[in-house]
Amino acid sequence: MAYKIIASQCTGCSACEFECPNAAIKMKGETFIIDPAKCTECEGHFDTAQCAVVCPVPNTCVPA
What we know:
This protein is of the alpha+beta class.
């Protein structure tokens, strides 16, 4: 499975982009998106998905 970013809630702060160990997060327009082919939910790197941990808006980076 992968995570996704709720576009309507994304502030474009870019915190998630730099935390992703798989470079799965990229800017698209004014928000960020997660490439599901690259997202591993941070398994093998962290205990929890780092995009969700660092996002300043609750429930914006969620399981797809």
